[in-house]
Design a protein that fits this description.
Blueprint (H helix, E strand, L loop, with lengths): L17 E10 L5 E10 L30 E2 L6 E4 L5 E4 L13 E6 L17 E6 L5 E4 L7 H15 L29 E4 L7 E11 L2 E11 L4
Length: about 230
Amino acid sequence: MREGDNTFAVAVPPLPAGTYELFCDLTLMSGYSSTATNFVQLPPVPARTTADTSVCLMPDSDDSWATNAAVAVRENSGGETICHLPDGTQVVWPAHPALRARMDAGLRFTVRDRAGQPVELEPYMGMLSHAAVLRADGRVFAHLHPAGNYSMAAQMLFDARKAAETGVTNPADPMPGMMMGGSMMMMGHPMGGSSDISIPYEFPSPGDYRVWVQFKIKGQVMTAIFDATVGQGG
């Protein structure tokens, strides 16, 4: 929720107490995007009573969170790597060449049900999937989309300025921004029905990374977690 020009409030889910690192994607009016980071100490979740009249910030309908770090699996480039989610959903990272810095990472996944059958994905914030990449030392972070890692807000700003300058909105534009008024498009991807996820990315430097892959099935946002080691590039 926006509070003034430069202040935003976000509902915090009932996360376990502890120290958390925050990553905030920012897009300025110029269209320039950056990521701000900070740390926050969360106390234990307080017990609520029927007499509690405190004002709570309602979560956004696109909010999602996961505390299932135990299901993170080590990526194996020589064969399928499968992340098993608590409900039985399987997220498969197919065999691919060894990960190297500054080379195509092969971030391609298939979502299957408990029986191993393909699952139909639904749009989530206008796309079939989202992903986040974090190097173990925290010095590399990226928020990724099937169409690339540019900011959706920057794309929307660009489209709005283009329409204002030309007076024309081109529905055939292969990379249009997200439409306002509650209608989402898919950034050049189908509106759903696929079980396959493909996210272009090149790891900028060697190291140990964690990859979070998010998607929606039957209205529920799910998160698969993979750990990977990236070697020196060619």
